[in-house]
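Practice problem: Hpt domain protein
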Amino acid sequence: MRPQDPQNGKTLGRVMAFLQDAHFLTPDEAAQALAVAAEVLGQALARLEKAAGAGDAGACAEAAHGLKGNLLNLGLPDLAALAEEAFAKARRGDLDPARAAGRTLGTALAPLLPDGRPPA
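Answer key — structure tokens:
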């Protein structure tokens, strides 16, 4: 599966629709939930980047696993699959997929993140 192109706003629309339909939230409640989730996603992406940069496979796996769960809770199974792949490979000590996943996820999730861009 390929992540949605973040430039066309589909990621944000998908998440808002999922939160309202699957979790029965009002538009205001969905926006509030998304604001909280955006902070969590930004922090998790930063942890993944830091762990990959430090060569810490265990911390990479932990960050990728957390991202996977958060992405599933937001109705983004295609992005969760990417995080799952990074998790599995990081557990085996292969950090390159975690680095690549962090970049791809950061770009795909930029419309949801507080500053509209991946953590630096």
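Discussion: The longest helix spans residues 27-54. Students who identified this feature from the tokens alone can consider the problem solved.
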